[in-house]
UniProtKB/TrEMBL annotation:
Family per record: Belongs to the peptidase A1 family.
Lineage, highest ranks first: Eukaryota, Fungi, Fungi incertae sedis, Chytridiomycota, Chytridiomycota incertae sedis
Protein name per its UniProtKB record: Peptidase A1 domain-containing protein
Record organism: Batrachochytrium dendrobatidis (strain JAM81 / FGSC 10211)
Domain Peptidase A1: 50-395
GO term, biological process aspect, one: proteolysis
Length: 441
């Protein structure tokens, strides 16, 4: 006789996408590095993930939404250095799995169980889960408080647990509980943080800021692991920055290190040359009163300390822009030709509010080989991660109606520029977006 959960599946079989609130992380973040198959001992950086509640095997658990992880990781009842909701599980003859999430090592077992998001119509039977019974402690991956589990969005190739379906997202899609194998993410700035949400299936789109709410432009994701992008150029105040020789270059015996989207990175990481050029442009803009001196530049920009209204008055209109040019996703282009998409950030994107009267520089120095497009890059955009067609969409995001600086802007492959204050010819633009950026067949 089918169980209650299996019966519920029949009720929800026609369920579409659902929008779920994302709970903002603490502002402090914590030390960590990007997910990799081997731990990275350099370039440590802060990360802190937005989270949603997911029910795993009957237990509601707060799960960090991680675009760089494929596995969804939960704690077993005997997990060390953990105090919070956990999963009871008795392994049979399964071999244990060892892996890394955010470069924190863990050991556990892969298994399949029922997974759903409470109060929604998105269930899945036999979804793949990794339960861990051992983890490194400096730092620990899961603590039972803000970090209870990991919900991985990345492509299956990064998974340590290999099964079918490959990920929770694939289980939902293959079970036809979501219409599209994609996720829309809208991360909101400080004053609108409670409006941050994830749209699983990416269909709950509303018209905003002169568009129908769908992506204005799509870029290609050249690999099948993380949500990567191929960056062609970076500009400060429309002036190109000379990038390092190793930037997104293929070396003998190595694959290209492409830049990527990271929903847990608290900063946008660039090669030193970009950060230096941006800080120099900020200093030369004379946008700070009193004038920035050397100790202030070191403290607030190179070291990342927040600044308050008592430190400076900021004349936002004087500050420079920061543009990222990426390869577009255009399957109709002739082989060998490539068009681009340009996303231009304003000062309120790279100088983010972190308290009632405080702002912090949201850019830091990372690898010479790539850019990490962290949360500040996404804060005022709608970012659609299309797992089926290996592409990433950018559209109007959270609070675009309230934009004070007219940023961010998006220039698509046809040189059509969208900006938040664009109110005219709304219908015309929406029809054009639908015509130009229909889904690949």
């Amino acid at each position: 006789m089918p169980g209650i959960f299996q019966c519920l599946l029949l009720v929800f079989q026609t369920a579409a996408a659902v929008q779920v609130q994302l709970h903002a992380p603490s502002l402090s973040g914590r030390s960590g590095t990007r997910l990799s198959k081997q731990p990275s001992k350099s370039n440590e950086r802060a990360y802190s993930c937005f989270s949603i509640i997911i029910n795993v095997g009957g237990v509601d658990i707060k799960s960090m939404v991680d675009s760089t992880s494929s596995d969804s990781v939960v704690p077993f009842s005997n997990l060390n250095n953990y105090n919070g909701p956990n999963i009871s599980y008795t392994p049979f003859e399964e071999p244990s799995i060892e892996g890394y999430s955010r470069d924190v090592s863990w050991k556990g077992y892969g298994f399949s169980t029922d997974v759903f998001i409470p109060e929604t119509g998105i269930p899945a039977v036999d979804a793949p889960i990794v339960g861990i019974f051992k983890q490194a402690t400096e730092p620990a991956l899961l603590d039972g408080q803000g970090r209870q589990a990991v919900f991985g969005l990345a492509y299956p190739s990064l998974a340590y647990y290999h099964t079918t379906p490959a990920t929770i997202m694939d289980a939902w899609y293959e079970g036809r509980f979501i219409p599209n194998n994609e996720v829309g993410v809208e991360l909101c700035p400080y004053k609108l943080s409670k409006k941050s949400h994830i749209d699983i299936g990416s269909t709950e789109v509303v018209p905003k800021c002169g568009t129908d709410g769908n992506p204005i432009a799509w870029v290609e994701s050249p690999t099948n692991d993380r949500f990567t992008v191929s960056i062609k150029e970076i500009l400060v105040n429309s002036m190109p920055v000379e990038l390092p020789d190793d930037f997104q270059k293929k070396r003998e015996g190595e694959s290209i290190s492409y830049s990527y989207i990271d929903t847990c990175a608290t900063k946008v990481e660039f090669p030193y040359e970009v950060v230096d050029k941006l800080i120099s442009a900020i200093v030369k803009s004379h946008a700070f009163v009193p004038k920035l001196d050397t100790p202030s530049i070191s403290k607030f920009f190179w070291s990342g300390y927040p600044m308050t209204k008592s430190d400076f008055i900021i004349i936002w209109s004087r500050l420079p822009t920061l543009s990222i040019v990426m390869n577009a996703n255009n399957p109709e282009k002739a082989e060998g030709s490539q068009s681009t998409v340009k996303v231009t950030l304003g000062p309120r994107d790279y100088m983010q509010q972190v308290g009632e009267n405080a702002h912090a520089f949201s850019v830091s120095v990372g690898s010479d080989k790539l850019v990490v497009l962290g949360v500040p890059f996404m804060t005022r955009l709608r970012v659609v991660l299309d797992r089926a067609h290996k592409r990433i969409g950018f559209g109007p995001g959270c609070g675009c109606e309230r934009s004070k600086d007219g940023h961010p802007t998006i220039q698509n492959e046809f040189n059509k520029i969208w900006h938040p204050k664009q109110k005219t010819s709304k219908c015309k633009l929406s029809r054009r977006v639908n015509a130009l950026f229909s889904k690949p067949k």
